[in-house]
Amino acid sequence: MPSLVDQIVAAISHVAGPAAPLHAPEIAGNEWPYVKECLDTEWVSSVGSYVDRFESDLAAKTGAKYAIATMNGTAALHGCMVLAGVGHDQEVIVPALTFVATANAVSYLGAVPHFVDSELVTLGVDPAKLDGHLDEIAERRSDGVYNSRTGRKIAAVICMHTFGHPVRIDALLDVTQKWNLPLIEDAAESLGSYFKGRHTGTFGKVSALSFNGNKIITTGGGGAILTDNPNIAARAKHLTTTAKIPHLWAFEHDDIGYNYRLPNINAALGCAQLERLEDFLARKRRVADAYTAAFLGVDGVRIVLEPDHSTSNMWLNAILLAPENSAYRNPILDMTNESGLMTRPVWNLMHTLPMYAECPRADLSTAEQLASCLITLPSSPSLAA
Ligand SMILES: *Cc1c(COP(=O)(O)O)cnc(C)c1O
């Protein structure tokens, strides 16, 4: 009987071959003609028709009323914090298990991330645990909810749809509505993912998407803010484009804006990539099914499955070692990466990073288990049989 490590490495290479990146972009549609058109017409920068088209294509695809393209997902998240009204010295609830950009966006406003736990099934914020934690530490005052331990106002809750798997967003909305807190979705990983038939990123007050090179579609670098609120959408566009008042020749700005707009050349890539999304989604599901089959007979490890009531984009496949097998995590990471099979652990939990070590936090025992037992697998659509 081969060792557990050998069985796991064999199951990964059964699907991914002898060597594979974690997630490679695929440029095989209209990217060349659309980008060429930008170059030929010299509309390469901050103005051009592809930005408008990409924004309306994104709104149509997600069902959000408005989409505002930005230069990356982190800029979109920063914009979401501003638009949700997060202020200096306030706290924002953030999952400890997320990519660092989620917490950084809070910090850009001079606010403090307050870390909460995730669920084993969705890998996202645990609604029941969040509710219990708020019952314990939160205090209602006339002007909002406060952390009674730190005295800071709690401004919002952010959830993140890890690897494309939607959080239990109806249960989470029950909690945020009970506490009258706005929900912000970090949907950077979940374009093409639905909860009960509705696209992720359309439940929160505002949401952020990312089109970085390793995401399900890419614009080279890029992101977007989604919202259904026309006033928030107008403000999002205004603030991400230097807060300039439209005028024939005057440079009038009425706020401290950001130069966060997506260049036309990147938006052209985005339009072409978005045309391929359904094909990517179908092939990524086949890759996920192949991993599920490959790991069926391997005891002591399980593949992370699509949560109930959800259609996941299956962006990144992951396996979870049983807790008693966590010591095998690093040998598996070593063995696969040495042979060119790109696997990764989950991100270092936010509260373990030096700049966030002193932040308030809830019990994080599930996130800690996930951090020690999870391995992500090569998941490019090109791996589909
Ligand atoms: C990729 C990602 C971001 C940031 O997006 P960029 O476009 O790289 O700035 C934010 N949050 C999560 C969860 C991500 O995976």
Average predicted local confidence, pLDDT: 97
Coarse shape: globular
Largest sheet: 9 strands, mixed
Which structural category fits the helices and strands?
alpha+beta
Q: What percent of residues adopt helix (DSSP H or I)?
A: 25-40%
Low-confidence stretches: none
List the bound ligands.
pyridoxal-5'-phosphate
Radius of gyration: 21 Å
Query: What multimeric state do the chains show?
Result: single chain
SSE order:
HHHEHEHEHEEEHEEEEEHHHEEEHEHE
What's the helix count?
Answer: 12
**Total number of β-strand segments?**
16
Instruction: Give the distance, in angstroms, between the N- and C-terminal Cα atoms.
Output: 28 Å
| Strand residue content | 15-25%
Structure characterization notes:
The protein is of the alpha+beta class and 385 residues long. The chain contains twelve helices and 16 strands. The strands form three sheets. Strands 1, 2, 3, 4, 5, 6, 7, 10 and 11 form a nine-stranded mixed sheet that branches. Strands 12-14-16-15 form a four-stranded antiparallel sheet. The chain is globular and about 75 Å long. The structure holds pyridoxal-5'-phosphate. Pyridoxal-5'-phosphate binds at residues 72-74, 77, 98-99, 101-102, 160, 186, 188-189, 210, 212, 223. Residues 72-74, 77, 98-99, 101-102, 160, 186, 188-189, 210, 212, 223 line the site of pyridoxal-5'-phosphate (PLP).
